[in-house]
């Protein structure tokens, strides 16, 4: 466990749930101290073997996570020395969430605060994800405004300049679930009702912007301006901590795939456009300076939050309330500038390299062979987490090894029914493919006596075939349960 923590992985990481559960179960079942022999070790790591192998072999995106955390701690101490800013609360909290590898926090990262304008990239990304770029940009522009974020100003086409200013965010609020009632719209988010009321009661400037937008016919024809404003106030009032905020940043850094759950929550196009506008418009009137000196997508809020994205590497949430005259966190800006002075993230060269490398059309033979090995190893080990990640990364799940065997062959041979269900039901791997000996995955499952796998494959191949015996019914009921879980 101590070695695990040094890699940046936490025992609370959902991806390690099975591993930690097995260790705790063994401790409960034993009256005295438990020594981990090879059998127990294999049982504990079996479902997470690929993640743990990468961790201990330092094959993560950030190989030496412990060294990174030492630098972060020093930067945190330096940021604490910054005394400028106008808010009395001098607290500073930072949490970084590296993709795949680890999580590191400094300060009291569980203290809640309002997202305020840091919600705008998320709102824009959700709108893009649901409606597409062409529809969204009928109502909002893409260029920096050159004015304050709450200015009553539109571009030459009578649209808000971009989604990162108040006018743009208010218009976007009218697009999301426009035909739902208030409760249904608000149920999309975790909201703080008291801060929402405060936001609404002191939102005269935003009401003025709303009526200005209505006069200029910036809203969709069926939109309710008051409802859009209320929804915008609710979004700004979402309460987060540095912990939860860093997951938002890491999801944007990961191309829309949540690094905790492995689920795609935003489309790649939505994330790409969001990061572009964060880069050019995300830091109020300081956006140009920030792009020049830091060169990474970021968004600040008047609560003192700074959401920083390092594409394909990590997401960072800083919170320190003292603000400069432009409304940005003094210590948050200092931390971001010091971060890039210590580490070379290659800015968007890194993003372009990642896209090129992971485009199947540009994959070399060596990369392809490595992909097959990783796929087969995950199927052999029953590592469903790794297989989910491969599927979300557009890996061909029907790749064959030198014996023409697929991952489905391997999982069926080993009796990993959850993997078999995932590969067939979710990835739609062809169950009729034969290896060089003429065997299908069903043949392999029958040969090694894995009855539940046999039933799962037969159910998938034949549909709802009639059950002739009670044993078959029981087996198929078990399969149906597993299928619903997967």
Give the number of helices.
24
Low-confidence stretches: 189-196, 346-364, 464-468
Number of strands: 7
Strands of the largest sheet, in order across it?
A: 2-1-7-6-5
The number of domains:
3
The helix content, as a percent range, equals 40-55%
Outline type: globular
Oligomer: single chain
**Can you identify the CATH superfamily of the largest domain?**
DD-peptidase/beta-lactamase superfamily
Structural classification: mainly alpha
- Radius of gyration from CA coordinates: 26 Å
- For the terminal residues, how far apart are their CA atoms? 28 Å
Average pLDDT number: 81
- Largest β-sheet summary: 5 strands, antiparallel
CATH 2nd-level architecture of the largest domain:
3-Layer(aba) Sandwich
CATH topology of the largest domain: Beta-lactamase
Strand content: 5-15%
Classified by CATH, the class of the largest domain is Alpha Beta
Describe the 3D structure.
This protein has 486 residues and is mainly α. The protein folds into 3 domains: 2-57, Recoverin, domain 1 (Orthogonal Bundle), CATH 1.10.238.210; 93-352, Beta-lactamase (3-Layer(aba) Sandwich); 360-485, Serine Threonine Protein Phosphatase 5, Tetratricopeptide repeat (Alpha Horseshoe), CATH 1.25.40.20. Helix content is 51%, strand content 6%. The protein contains 24 helices and 7 strands. A hairpin with a 4-residue loop joins strand 5 and strand 6. Helix 20 runs parallel beside helix 22 (441-447) and helix 22 runs antiparallel to helix 23 (451-462). The longest helix has 17 residues, at 365-381. The protein is globular. The model is unreliable at 189-196, 346-364 and 464-468 (pLDDT under 50). Belongs to the glutaminase family.
């Amino acid at each position: 466990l101590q070695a695990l923590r040094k890699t940046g992985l936490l025992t609370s990481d959902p991806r390690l749930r099975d591993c930690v559960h097995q260790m705790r179960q063994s401790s409960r079942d034993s009256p005295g101290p438990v020594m981990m022999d090879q059998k127990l070790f294999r049982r504990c790591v079996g479902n997470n073997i690929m993640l743990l192998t990468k961790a201990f072999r330092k094959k993560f995106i950030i190989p030496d996570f412990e060294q990174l955390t030492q630098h972060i701690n020093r930067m945190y101490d330096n940021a604490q020395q910054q005394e400028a800013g106008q808010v009395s609360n001098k607290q500073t909290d930072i949490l970084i969430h590296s993709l795949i590898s680890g999580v590191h926090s400094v300060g009291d990262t569980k203290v809640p605060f309002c997202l305020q304008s840091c919600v705008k990239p998320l709102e824009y990304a959700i709108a893009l994800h649901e409606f597409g770029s062409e529809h969204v940009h009928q109502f909002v522009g893409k260029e920096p405004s050159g004015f304050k974020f709450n200015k009553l100003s539109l571009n030459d086409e009578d649209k808000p300049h971009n989604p990162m200013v108040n006018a743009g965010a208010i218009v976007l609020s009218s697009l999301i679930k426009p035909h739902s009632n208030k409760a249904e719209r608000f149920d999309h988010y975790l909201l703080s009702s008291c801060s929402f009321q405060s936001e609404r009661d002191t939102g005269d400037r935003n009401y003025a912007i709303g009526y200005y937008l209505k006069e200029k016919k910036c809203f969709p024809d069926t939109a309710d301006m008051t409802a859009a404003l209320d929804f915008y106030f609710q979004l700004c009032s979402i309460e987060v901590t540095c912990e939860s905020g860093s997951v938002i940043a890491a999801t944007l850094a990961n191309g829309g795939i949540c690094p905790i759950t492995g689920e795609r929550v935003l489309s790649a196009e939505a994330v790409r456009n969001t990061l572009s506008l964060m880069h050019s418009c995300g830091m109020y009137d300081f956006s140009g300076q920030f792009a020049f000196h830091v060169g990474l997508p970021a968004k600040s809020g008047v609560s003192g939050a700074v959401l920083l994205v390092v594409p394909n590497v990590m997401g960072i949430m800083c919170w320190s309330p003292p603000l400069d005259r432009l409304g940005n966190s003094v210590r948050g800006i200092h931390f971001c500038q010091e971060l890039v002075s210590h580490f070379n993230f290659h800015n968007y060269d890194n993003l372009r390299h990642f896209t090129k490398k992971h485009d199947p059309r540009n994959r070399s033979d060596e990369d392809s062979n490595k992909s097959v090995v990783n796929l087969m190893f995950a199927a052999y080990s029953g590592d469903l987490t790794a297989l989910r990640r491969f599927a979300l990364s557009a890996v061909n799940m029907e790749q064959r090894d030198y014996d023409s065997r697929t991952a489905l062959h391997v999982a069926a041979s080993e009796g990993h029914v959850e993997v078999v269900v995932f590969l067939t039901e979710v990835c739609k791997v062809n169950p009729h493919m034969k290896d060089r000996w003429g065997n299908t995955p069903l043949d392999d499952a029958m040969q090694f006596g894995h009855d539940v796998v046999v039933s799962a494959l037969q159910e998938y191949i034949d549909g709802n075939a009639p059950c002739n015996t009670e044993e078959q019914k029981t087996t198929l009921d078990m399969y149906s349960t597993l299928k619903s879980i997967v």
